Amino acid sequence: MSESEKHPVFRRFGPNFSENEVQFIVHGQGVVLFNYKGAGPCVFNIFNKDKSAGLKVEFAVGGVKVAGSVPLVDTNSTKGLSSDPGAYYWFSLDSQNQKLYAGVGEARLETVVYQYEFPKKTEENKAFLESLVSCTLGSYMKALRLLRDPVTLTVPMVVRATDDLTMSDVAAGTYLPSANLSTMNQKLYNCVSGRKFILDDADFPDFSKAIEHSIATPGLWCNTKLKEKSTEFSKDKPNPLETYLRITLGQNNGESPGIPYVMEIWPVGHYSPVHGHAGADAVIRVLYGNIHVRLFPFLSAEAIPFSYAEFKAGDITWISPTLNQVHQLTNLKTSKTTCITIQCYMYEEADKGHYDYFDYIDPNGATQQYEPDSDMDFVEFKALMKREWLQASFFRRLGLCLT
């Protein structure tokens, strides 16, 4: 198995997907994501229907160059090809706004290394851009995915239900309306966003306190399990802080990497390795505490985070096959409480080659495969926390202390 098969950036979609030539879904717009492996030039062309006119795009180490009938120069473009083996690239064509973007990693404004806006928004320029229908890649390049819509705006991280959004929210782009999620993510969102989908419910109002107690008390389940997991991401270098608990809801139905619904428990100061999400859709809701997120353009030991975010109890964020895929989660040392999240995953319906691992970067900088597993079923875990909490309450009433 090759490295690209072992650690895919995206899944291939459909038998007719070409790695060397793609047809834009809408003429004059779209994003082509591709990788480049080789010593030859990284050059591709975007053509009109009869290939009589178009754009020539060249990625080089020192920047990106684009030319039509004349050079379309971005004088600030000083980055292009990366020596990082995990890097991949993208180019965005936008005829409506008459803008061109190029970037490294996820296709978004935060990863742009080249941008050009036609100085005069003329009908002639628009007609030229709208005439472009295909992209032909060079021999050292392979198309990874084609997106219908161009890169235009910074995409919000926090999702809000449509009923909770104001006109000002929509105008400012502060939140992502739940209706704008993909079909699969809307399904996941609807499952975990309800008012009654909470940790401390009527059945066990002290659930969060019981979990905190179990983490803090030697001999209890959470404390013991966290110690056992200190070698989970590195057999040779135990790290008690690079641990968290995975409490699963339901079973693996073959439509997600691992069991689709997972309650994750993050003690203060604990964190995950930098990792990807198998090209799956995902929705994450914070049930208790706060979680800090670092977002990366691609999976690599050398990749630099392009964004940071902090999510509090009640916040819901999202992952798609092409956005927010690579991150690191941390419950900061400055936090006062454990963080507990519900994370749910599902492959897109078009994904015919399910990749069952969350790839991560180990302490030596190598990419490894992590098979999402379960530390305990949710029903069993909740019953166990009840027993531990009742026992602790009993001893407290007697004026005794287990610790």
From TrEMBL:
<dbReference type="InterPro" id="IPR014710">
    <property type="entry name" value="RmlC-like_jellyroll"/>
</dbReference>
<dbReference type="InterPro" id="IPR011051">
    <property type="entry name" value="RmlC_Cupin_sf"/>
</dbReference>
<protein>
    <recommendedName>
        <fullName>Cysteine dioxygenase</fullName>
    </recommendedName>
</protein>
